[in-house]
Amino acid sequence: MHCMQKSSEKYITFIIAKCYTDINREHLLYLENIENVGNIALLNLETQKVTILQKGFSEPEIDWSPDGKWLVFSREDNEFNSDIFLISVKNPRKVYNISRHPDFDGRPIWSPNGRWIAFTSRRNNNDLDIWLAYLQKEDWERPLEEWDGFCKKEKEKKNLKAKGKKKKVRVRIQFSKLYLRCQQLTRWRAEETPLAFSKDSKYLYFASNLDEKGDLYRVSLPKKKITRLTTNHLAPKEMVPMEKGFLILNQKGSFYQWSTSNKAVILPYRIQTEILRPLERKYVFLEAWDWMDRFFYDVHFHGRNWQSVKKKYGLWTSQILHDRDFYHAMNMMLGELNSSHVGLYGPRPKALDVTGVLGIRFHPVSNGFQVDWGLPKSPADHSSSRLYKGDIIRSVEGNTLTGRENFYSLFRNKVNKEVWLQVERKTKIVSSSVKKRPGKNKNLGETSIINIYIRPISPQREQNLLYQNWVERNRKLVSQLSGGKLAYLHIRGMGWANVEQFERELFSEAHNKKGLLIDVRYNGGGWTADYLLAILMVKPHAFTVPRSGGKGYPQGRLPYYKWTLPAITLCNEYSFSNAEIFSHAFKTLKRGLLVGKTTYGGVISTGGTRLLDGSYLRLPFRGWYLHPSGQNMENHGAKPDVVVENPPGEEIAGQDRQLKKAVKLLLSQLN
């Protein structure tokens, strides 16, 4: 929701992410960003006075206490760790951390009876489990066997006091070591969110992707008995309590009314809109500029006057008539920041066609296309459909070729589908392994026309095979140049699968080797630099010796397989983002030499948001700086200790000066 607030005769735009009213409808709680993104503000609905209860740089998740006197919220600290906090509305300066854990804790909700706060946490195996905080010590200490009797007595007391009057909940909190009164409710290898209490606080409802698609569950309190309520993959995204059930918005944008009788009824809706494109573009322009104004990590905008940029591009974009030109102009505006990790991406239609590829390089000839090279492990390398250097593809699916066709168009939408080729091949290398199918092979003397049935693969699959071939070539070169003393590992990206592959290959390829070449060239980044460093920065403190055995260290006592021997890292101008953080760290921590070219210089943590027209805006929100110098890594790439250029011509020819230099340097260290 966009709002306007008048200040010093100027209107300042701010965004209310969510609004919350207290139980008495006297106050409105909202998030505003005039001073900081994620400030918690309280509006007195009678006096219109606004009080800032808490300031922060990240958006919190908030819930009122049932009596309207307390707030529970989650918030990230400077280490970007989220915890659960309590504050009194009357005295918001006193903040109580009730979770106190180094792993994520978030999305807190208060039980209607005021006794519990439920929240989600990644404390175990990085799974998003449900936890329950007991606000009163006597509840925490009460045996499960006594809860039924206690609840019955409490209900009788309330009935006696009520006598037709509306029940009032009184929240009592015992803060002493409250963070130790947190109980885990779920222990699944899954994500449990969102959460919602039943009105009587007997049950906590939640969604879980335990079966990968998502359904609704409930857990009884405090006995922790879990019941599955739906089996039709409802996939709840948000749940709003109703009199007897919930209003559910699922992941696909559909609304359901779920009742306690375990019935989920879809609520159909249809919205017709009239879109005025010029006004929509104007709003998207203001929306994108405003998001960047509030979220860009550098308050000085890399030295640019962001207000004057707004005036300049506001005039330009107001005169644009086509979406494509509009997005181009918007990205020009973002380019003024001279920043990585930015961009505005318009809604893109799904690709309807996928072109199949065979895994060959070729050139046209007068009677078709001649094969120059076949990619190992591609369809052209399979025993039943192998294509050799010098083969001429004469026809595809019976269509005779002249060498003037668009070869790739012949394999449109043919991925994983069998395609019939007629190939002219030298008779002496015609293989008996060619698949026998209808249509005779013709012997033309020195050459023969043979029938081959081949299944094209996707371009992405071919790229993966090309990458594997490149890594294998580098690995063989390192082994040859070092006499088998050195191991070579390339890290393609900085995701979790890359960490697992690195650890696996560190053992399979580097075990018993004397040195290690780590290659992060052409690495597009991610988030796992510190996990890789945890493997490489282990300092030996002890060793073990079993009877009749030798020195070692129990692998089961280590979080990861370790490498403590000499190592060198290769980087280049295509090492990006988290790969640059790794390169900087490898050099700064003096783990070994950095060899190659200065990295790209694009290091920012980025998020993003959807805009009104469905476009996606990337938002760089966190800068990275070298310790202890404080130099910004953005626009300052990691400079190698030894700079080596790889000329383009040599690179295409398979030569690699950087790799050869790294081998030479590492061998000299061993000597």
Structure description:
Helix 6 runs parallel beside helix 11 (657-670) and helix 8 (529-536) runs parallel beside helix 9 (578-588). It is built from eleven helices and 37 strands. The chain starts with a strand and ends with a helix. The chain has 671 residues and is of the alpha+beta class. Strand 1 and strand 2 (10-15) form a beta hairpin. Strands 24, 25, 26, 27, 28, 29 and 30 form a seven-stranded antiparallel sheet that branches. The radius of gyration is 32 Å and the shape is globular. The model is unreliable at 1-17 (pLDDT under 50). It has four domains: 60-142 and 172-267, TolB, C-terminal domain (Neuraminidase), CATH 2.120.10; 277-345; 360-457, PDZ domain (Pdz3 Domain), CATH 2.30.42.10; 485-602 and 637-670, Alpha-Beta Complex (2-enoyl-CoA Hydratase, Chain A, domain 1).
Q: Could you give the topology of this structure?
A:
Elements lengths: L1 E6 L2 E6 L3 E3 L5 E6 L6 E6 L5 E5 L6 E4 L5 E7 L5 E7 L6 E3 L7 E6 L5 E6 L7 E6 L2 H5 L2 H19 L19 E3 L7 E6 L5 E6 L6 E6 L5 E3 L7 E7 L2 E6 L4 E5 L3 E5 L9 H19 L10 H12 L5 H13 L7 E3 L14 E6 L2 E7 L17 E5 L2 E2 L18 E8 L15 E2 L3 E8 L4 H24 L3 E5 L5 H13 L6 E5 L9 H8 L30 E5 L6 H11 L5 E3 L7 E7 L5 E8 L18 E2 L4 H5 L4 H14 L1
Parallel strand pairs: 31-32, 32-33, 33-34, 34-37
Antiparallel strand pairs: 1-2, 3-4, 4-5, 5-6, 7-8, 8-9, 9-10, 11-12, 12-13, 13-14, 15-16, 16-17, 17-18, 19-20, 20-21, 21-22, 23-36, 24-25, 25-26, 26-27, 26-28, 28-30, 29-30, 35-36
Helix pairs in contact: 3-4, 4-5, 6-11, 8-9
State the helicity in percent bands. 10-25%
State the low-pLDDT regions, or none: 1-17
CATH architectural grouping of the largest domain: 6 Propeller
How many discrete domains? 4
Structural class from helices and strands? alpha+beta
Biggest β-sheet description: 7 strands, antiparallel
In total, the number of strands is 37
Instruction: Report the CATH superfamily of the largest domain.
Output: TolB, C-terminal domain
Summed up, the helix count is 11
CATH class of the largest domain: Mainly Beta
Strand content: 25-35%
Report mean pLDDT, rounded to a whole number. Answer: 90
Gyration radius over CA: 32 Å
Rounded to the nearest angstrom, the distance between the terminal CA atoms is 67 Å
What would you call the shape?
globular
Annotated CATH topology of the largest domain: Neuraminidase
